[in-house]
Structures are given as C-alpha cells and as structure tokens.
C-alpha cells in the first residue's frame, strides 16, 4: 500500500459518501444520473466476486463491502425511495448505458490476463468503470448548471482515478514484476474522460462562478 | 502485504 493508493481509495470513498449524504439528507437526487449509479453497482458486483474467497487484507475487504453497500443503496434510493425518486429527472438521464455494457463485455472476453470467469468479470468491471461516468457527464451537460455536491462528486471521482495513476507509476518503479497494461490503459482512458470536466470545474472555481459546462 | 499476482487493488 502506498500513499497515492490510500489517498485514491479515500477520495473514492469520499465521492460515494458525498453522494449518499446528499441523497439522504436533502432527500433529492436532482442532477444525479441513475444510469451511472447502476453501472457503478454493476462494476463493483463484477469486480468483487472474490470478496469471500480471496482475502487480501481487512482493509481491502471492508472497503469492498462499503463500495458495494453504498453503490447499491444509492441505486435503491433513486429507484424506490418514495421521496427521492420523485427528484430523479428520467427524461434527461437518457444515455443508453446498455450500449456501454455489451462492448465492455465483448472486449473483456477478447482482451484479458487470464481466460477464467472471475478474471473476465474483473476485466469487464475495469472497462465498464472507465465509461460508467459518461451518463453522468452527459446529464451535467444537459442540465448545464451543476449543484456543487454533484460537481464535487464528479471531481472526487476524477481525483481518485488521477491518484491511482500515480499509484501505478509508484508500484511500477518499486515492484519489479508489477505490470498490468489492461488496468493502466483502461484507468488512463477513464481519467482522460474527466479531463475536460476538470478544466471547466477549475475555470468556475478560479472565476468563482457557478459551474456550467458548454452545450 | 500485497498479494502477488492476485488483484490486490480495489
């Protein structure tokens, strides 16, 4: 464990807690894409299949439980909670996220480190996580102005990915055999997707304006 | 301790 990875995990944890806090306290999910949340729940479900069979560390297991619990409860809130669901604007959140799932699955079947069920599902979860933010970014473009909690959520998610890239660089230089091209490339693609959001987020922060993305 | 070979990252 290195500081970049710990900071990355904490930032990732903060992003889901910010979102859960927003939804739980103000009982609203305005501006949040349910499609992105469903994709994240699927990502964690496919990635943590080995949660009970492959014990890495207590930290690892606890964090997996937190990510699974938070992502599924966010989906539950947005789908079934009688107050929260009313604030979900489904006619704006129209990204056909099923079109993301299939190509990621096919790609995982073609490009993986080991052709086993668990490994293919793990690789599928990596590719899917790389594109899972797209419905949320499209929704932000549509709704133009972003309430600062949703903005913080996307910002923290991007920061977590950026920190993970530093973690991979660190591990590459400190652990001789640590080479995971698949993880690195999909992680890089994911981080690049945030780049333009970061640009507008920084601009709005610098000019102390309300953050809005160009149409 | 990071488990060698297995996926030890979240």
From TrEMBL, chain A:
<keyword id="KW-0472">Membrane</keyword>
<keyword id="KW-0813">Transport</keyword>
<dbReference type="InterPro" id="IPR000133">
    <property type="entry name" value="ER_ret_rcpt"/>
</dbReference>
<feature type="transmembrane region" description="Helical">
    <location>
        <begin position="55"/>
        <end position="77"/>
    </location>
</feature>
<feature type="transmembrane region" description="Helical">
    <location>
        <begin position="98"/>
        <end position="115"/>
    </location>
</feature>
<feature type="transmembrane region" description="Helical">
    <location>
        <begin position="121"/>
        <end position="140"/>
    </location>
</feature>
<keyword id="KW-0653">Protein transport</keyword>
<protein>
    <recommendedName>
        <fullName>ER lumen protein-retaining receptor</fullName>
    </recommendedName>
</protein>
<keyword id="KW-0256">Endoplasmic reticulum</keyword>
<dbReference type="GO" id="GO:0016192">
    <property type="term" value="P:vesicle-mediated transport"/>
</dbReference>
<dbReference type="GO" id="GO:0015031">
    <property type="term" value="P:protein transport"/>
</dbReference>
<dbReference type="Pfam" id="PF00810">
    <property type="entry name" value="ER_lumen_recept"/>
</dbReference>
<dbReference type="GO" id="GO:0005789">
    <property type="term" value="C:endoplasmic reticulum membrane"/>
</dbReference>
<comment type="similarity">
    <text>Belongs to the ERD2 family.</text>
</comment>
<feature type="transmembrane region" description="Helical">
    <location>
        <begin position="152"/>
        <end position="170"/>
    </location>
</feature>
<keyword id="KW-0931">ER-Golgi transport</keyword>
<feature type="transmembrane region" description="Helical">
    <location>
        <begin position="182"/>
        <end position="202"/>
    </location>
</feature>
<dbReference type="GO" id="GO:0046923">
    <property type="term" value="F:ER retention sequence binding"/>
</dbReference>
<keyword id="KW-0675">Receptor</keyword>
<keyword id="KW-0812">Transmembrane</keyword>
<keyword id="KW-1133">Transmembrane helix</keyword>
<dbReference type="GO" id="GO:0006621">
    <property type="term" value="P:protein retention in ER lumen"/>
</dbReference>
């Amino acid at each position: 464990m290195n500081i970049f990875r710990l900071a990355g995990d904490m930032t990732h944890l903060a992003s889901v807690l910010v979102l859960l806090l927003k939804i739980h306290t103000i009982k609203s999910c305005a501006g949040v894409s349910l499609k992105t949340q469903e994709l994240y729940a699927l990502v964690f479900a496919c990635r943590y299949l080995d949660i009970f069979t492959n014990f890495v560390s207590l930290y690892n297991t606890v964090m997996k439980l937190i990510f699974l619990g938070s992502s599924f409860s966010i989906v539950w809130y947005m789908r079934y909670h009688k107050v929260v669901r009313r604030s979900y604007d489904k006619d704006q959140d129209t990204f056909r996220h099923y079109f993301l799932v299939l190509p990621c699955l096919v790609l995982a079947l073609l490009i993986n480190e080991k052709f086993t069920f668990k490994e293919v599902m793990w690789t599928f979860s990596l590719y899917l996580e790389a594109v899972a933010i797209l419905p949320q970014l499209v929704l932000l473009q549509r709704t133009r102005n972003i309430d600062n909690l949703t903005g913080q959520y996307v910002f923290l998610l991007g920061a977590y990915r950026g920190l993970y890239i530093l973690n991979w660089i660190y591990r590459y230089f400190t652990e001789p055999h640590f080479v995971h091209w698949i993880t690195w490339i999909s992680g890089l693609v994911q981080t690049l997707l945030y780049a333009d959001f970061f640009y507008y987020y920084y601009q709005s922060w610098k000019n102390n304006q309300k953050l809005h993305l160009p149409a | 301790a990071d488990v060698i070979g297995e996926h030890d990252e979240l």
